[in-house]
Amino acid sequence: MTKAFTLTASLEDYLEAIFHIIAEKQAVRPKDIAKRLKVSNPSVTGALRSLADKELINYAPYDVISLTPTGKMAAKDVIRRHEVLSDFFVKVLAVEEADADKAACLMEHSIPRVILERFIQFAEFVEVCPRGGSKWIAGFNYHCDQGDTQENCEKCISLTLEEVRQRRNRGGKKAMTILKLKDLKPGQKGKVLKINTRGETNKRIVEMGITIGAVVEVERVAPMGDPIDIKVKGYHLSLRKEETGGIEIEML
């Protein structure tokens, strides 16, 4: 039976470091962790013993370190919290990446899950709302750098009215680009419109958080086009190409 455990902020940092080192080097040794976290070797030894006692890592002196299934889940949860916060600071608040990363490191250990999910929902809302989107975020960035003036507001309203007139001349509809998820390139993102899959495949996709209205971003496509790595709701997932072929996306 797996032990119940409570992790301190420090132990969460160690789990996160172990996960990233495994992803980069496939093997982890105490010296790698000490170098990454800039801590002493005795501190690493103490943390590793504590994580092993909680059955989150497999650890023995002079041997490589690995995560247990429970440890991997816990590490992914910490990383998700970090990335959701960092992405929000960069993409919504227009904060510099280095500053966003530092703030995320401080906040990731204490933010309640319900508030984390609200961060995700708000970021998605900003991206898909007709009154939001990249232009709205760019406007906020400009406001932070230049200050708010009545002249700026008048210019923004004027440009918005012009866009509305152009849309009306096109028949009142905003141009929409609809693709299959498999057709998106790395860095592109879109909103899920339809999921044309059935049975176990459909169940698996929904369980991973790919639902109607969710914002999905393609991170990497394997050289042969399979699998496709995506990010959705702060999670990093790998999908087979045949699975992504049944998911319709509205480009953002």
Task: Set down the secondary structure blueprint.
Blueprint lengths: L8 H17 L4 H8 L3 H13 L3 E2 L7 E2 L1 H23 L5 H11 L5 H16 L4 H14 L3 H20 L8 E3 L8 E7 L3 H9 L7 E7 L6 E5 L2 E5 L1 H4 L2 E5 L1
Antiparallel strand pairs: 1-2, 3-8, 4-5, 4-8, 5-6, 6-7
Question: In words, what does this structure look like?
Answer:
The chain has ten helices and eight strands. The mean pLDDT is 81. It folds into three domains: 1-109, Arc Repressor Mutant, subunit A (Orthogonal Bundle), CATH 1.10.10.10; 133-169; 178-251, SH3 type barrels (Roll). Helices cover 54% and strands 14% of the residues. The relative contact order is 0.08. Belongs to the DtxR/MntR family. One of its GO terms (cellular component) is cytoplasm.
* CATH architecture call of the largest domain: Orthogonal Bundle
CATH homologous superfamily assignment of the largest domain? Winged helix-like DNA-binding domain superfamily/Winged helix DNA-binding domain
Number of strands: 8
Share in helix: 40-55%
Write the H/E string, N to C.
HHHEEHHHHHEEHEEEHE
The average pLDDT is 81
Family: Belongs to the DtxR/MntR family.
Subunit structure: Homodimer.
GO molecular function: DNA binding; DNA-binding transcription factor activity; protein dimerization activity; transition metal ion binding
Domain HTH dtxR-type: 7-68
Features:
252 residues, alpha+beta, Arc Repressor Mutant, subunit A, SH3 type barrels, 3 domains, six-stranded antiparallel sheet, two-stranded antiparallel sheet, 10 helices, 8 strands, 14% strand
